[in-house]
Amino acid sequence: MNGIVVETTNLGYRYAFAKFQQSLREDASKYTPSRTIPTFLALYIFGFLYQLVLVYDALRLKNTIQVIGLCLYNVGLLIYAAVQMDQIHDAVKLLKGKNDIDPSVWNTEKPYLIAIPCIIALGTVLMAVIAWKLYDEFAWTIYKHISADLRMKRRYLTFQIYIALLKFDFFFFLGFTIQFVVVVVDHNDIEFYLTIAAIPVTIIILLMAGLFTRKENTPGMIASIILYFAGLAYFLFKLVRMYQHSSSRYGLYDPVRRPLTTFAVMTVILITLTIINACMCTANFGRGLKPHIAGRKVESEEEKLANGNMTEMPNYHYGGYGGPGAGGTMGSRMTID
């Protein structure tokens, strides 16, 4: 179902992207608004493809929190689509004023830009229903994996939330950075190269943060939390500067102020939640959770049966079902006369 929604929206956005590019005149590339629409559409397509990866990952790991998070992720994409429709309209009007775009392009694209958020909203509702059904299924599997210890289940839940947040942090950080680099920053500015360099560094930090949690590495987690605070300060700084009239860059943000604000606010919320959960995960170190997350995949009964782990075969060499006995003989059996 999610694949159908993703493919439908991707087709719609690819069509909108193609029509917009065809409608541009030769001199349009000199103006910032001509870059905003391709950036937005490319980012949106990547967002849906990344969602497919997260859906597969959530089902593979039986991570109920990630499934619920994907519903909220869809809501975020829905808000972004609604914000971008006005932004695209403004960009088209600006380019029309400079006679650098076909005036009829807005009327052609508007129905697609309205239909796509509606499709996303429908897909989100359907996904929420499926997530509710999966929650019951995965909860039972996790119960058998973790046991009935409520404190251990809470620790495992905290771990699941933290790992899911790291995966969503990646997309929203990347989305903000790409829009900022393509539309706002001057390519001859040192800030451009620093922002580009921050992308692989951030990916490494997120990967190491997940590894530190699984290995229960306290110094690594403390370093990760410090870096999260640095990231939070960075996004708050960018958010304030976008609306600072005294800033020399204030005018550069005009074409992307609303979408950048949307991404920055979502990223700030996610980083704050990540810091809270990182502290909770660190507090849970040394309390017996590590063996349960060493092999992350939680197997259902059917998978255990398929893998041959459902039952333990008797060891006749030691007599019966593992008990001591004579060399090649079977242990004693109870008979019913």
Describe this entry's structure for a reader:
By secondary structure, the chain is mainly α. It has helices spanning about 1-25, 35-60, 65-95, 105-145, 150-185, 190-215, 220-240, 255-285, 290-295, 300-305. α2 runs antiparallel to α3. The longest helix has about 40 residues, at about 105-145.
- The secondary-structure class comes to mainly alpha
Query: Quick one: overall form?
Result: globular
The main sheet comes to:
none
| Count of DSSP-assigned helices | 10
Brief characterization of the structure:
The chain has 337 residues and is mainly alpha-helical. The chain is built from 10 helices and no strands.
Topology:
Elements: H1 2-23, H2 33-61, H3 64-97, H4 105-146, H5 150-184, H6 190-215, H7 218-242, H8 257-283, H9 290-294, H10 301-306
Helix pairs in contact: 1-2, 1-4, 2-3, 2-5, 3-4, 3-5, 3-8, 5-6, 5-8, 6-7, 7-8
Describe the structure using short key phrases.
globular; 337 residues; mainly alpha
